[in-house]
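Example A, followed by Example B.
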Amino acid sequence: MLVDYARQIELWPPGKEPEKIAVAVSGGADSLFLLHLLHDLKKKGSLRSELLVYHLNHRLRATADRDLQLVIDAARSLDLPLYLRETDVLRLARRLRTSVETAGRQVRYRQLQRLAPVAATGHNADDFVESLLLHLCRGAGPAGLGGMKRFSCVDGLWLWRPLLTFTAVEIRQACQAARIDYAEDESNASLDYKRNRIRQTIMPALKAEGLNPARLAGQFLQAHAETGEDALVQPISTATYVCVDRLLLPGRLVLARAFAVLSVPPPSRAFFLEFSRQWARGRLYMENQELILWASPQSPLWLIRKDAPILRPPGIGPISEGRWPVAYNGQSRTYRLDPGYRVDVFSPGMRFETGRSLKNFWHICQFPRPLRSILPLIVSEQGLVNRACTEFIKEFRLISHSTSSEYSHNPSHRVP
């Protein structure tokens, strides 16, 4: 029975499958069905990731122990590691002045992130449509009405929702056929929650008018894939650094798009808050595991991958008859220099032949700080800089309005 459903699951793209996946299991039909389905895929070799089971007791219902026992029994029967957590979510929600749902979600994501890079959740097609209606009621714009993604990243945790094209009815029928025991959450019948009111009143009316949640969710997911909005099926970008115009910032969506272009996970909320703080101050320098971000008060924002060729020292030589071959930032150039001149990189105290300090030059030209010690320079026998070879960085040439000969081409030190 599970085989028929397993064929409909969209797995992780080749080369991107995580080492571990934490399956968030509440004890309800959706999450227990998901757990058995992924375990079946794992047994058949279609899924190579290590699976582990996560359960959070929110301390909201008297029947929580029943849910816990179902999860324990399932993990034991499938021989999977189990991680149990307990949090007074109601108390936390009051302290944070937020809803119980939001507080619970924050706790779950934070705990899941400590267990694995990816969490699999049991959101189904009905959940997909309900979320659309909730966002619509809250006045969301086009971005908020895009619907759930099959793959998404929240504060560094990847979320995988394999069941978005299965309806709640289909999942319960599959559980019964596969003899998977599950619990019914009695709080779903309460109309105290907006989602439940949508589920109990609006969704039946829409289905009576012909709404097919699975078909609608499938259309959205197909559109995400075709437009490149699905985080794991976007075309692979070869960019290793980008410049973002100041006028577009400090928007979080713009920053997330820049991260996507560089093929790194979107910025976490904490990262963006620190980014906004530094941006308001005027000068910005930040790092995470993948990127360096830099901006001065008038410059664009530079985002540079730490493995970018632009951060590697230039290769210089061998020299022959005054010709100095230089390889930097994926480019090769040969400089014909006058006797006594050489190609070098920055060292403290360097000045131009005009007397201007190199530090002052960097400041006036808004040259990105992470590159200052790496950019090739043409230097005299006395250690004075004739000019900086900014032609290796086309973005800087395009955005700089200066005409200083200290970085423009010098006729006597030309590239043949």
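Example B, a separate protein, is given below in the same form.
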Amino acid sequence: MDRMVDLSQLAGFDHVFTGRDCAKSLPDWILSLADRPTVTLVTGAQTIERSEMAQDLICRLALVAKLIHLRVGGEPSDEWVDAARKEVRAMGDTTCVVSIGGGSALDAGKALAALLCEKAPSIEYLEGVGFRNPSGKMLPWFALPTTAGTGSEASTNAVLSRPGSTGFKRSLRHPAYRPSGVWLDPNLTATCTPAVIASCGMDAFTQLFEAWSSTQVPADLAEVLEDALVAVYRHLPSLVEGTATDPTHAREALLIAAFLSGLGLTRAGLGTAHGLAGPIGAVVPIAHGLVCARLAGPCLRETVEWLRANPQGRHATKALGKMTRLRERLAPYSPGSTDAFADIQGWADRWELPRLGEVGLHPAHHPGVLRLASDRNSPAQLGPTVWKAILAEQKPFPGGLK
């Protein structure tokens, strides 16, 4: 980041901690809530097995609190939340909810902390499929991301999905859904595989780019998001490829960028890649990070091409000016490339991430995706013809990726 940013002040909530080993202070914060608290702990399916620091942290929590440990495998559904509410309530009151994991664990914990304060089935509070407005009440929720991707710790929504032919992927949303504490500890992401770093990092980049270029982005936020885009471009390739000179610093930079991407989602909205990713997640269970990683390049390319072809567009001149400036800022960190945007468009292939057609998205799914797709707040209105072409690019590589 080029400028010092007070993340708590920018996000509008207290207690955002950064730095190596900052997560070790979590038990003290939990103890401040009650003498012998009950903590509902939400982790990913393999968070504990993959992270020694997560194991140590959970052991420390167990010394000061009664733990109700719930795991979420894949992206959470409303049914998972309802089952979790039933389990927690059967064990008595819980003091707070702690999420340690990737975006799924964070969304699951956030939704659970909110919906433990509601009575009706979870689906009834979801945008687009439910008919109730959530109250905004929420148990204290503490977020410790173990990947640098969705920025769920900074957003005011939690995404729940039921993939299938009549499925959905929708948000539980309220401006009061804010964490009581966030720990961006680079040690918690130290054991991520290159593929996870790549897909999550590209998800964060996509979210940052779409919020930064959004027609609704506030000027003060746009400056910070642009700095975060530069940080991702600067640090992500070296982390994926194992060439970072200071991996801890690079991981922390990506965690902060991902946090800011979640804030950008809340304050500015997103664009075409997420306007396609949501419908894809509604029909087939593919990891959101991979979906965004594969859509990032084509959507960036088509957005720039549309703006150049439609300079008279309402937002085109301003958007093209911003993109020219961003290219110039990225150039010092792309010595092997004459065009940073072209470099970004090649990331997914360079890092051998599978095309979506190789992991479950088939042409038969495309019509359903296209019916629900949108360009959201993008300055480029690509429309169905371009969306269809972007999906067509996701067919499997002939003979597999080399």
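On Example B: The first strand starts at residue 16 and ends at 18.
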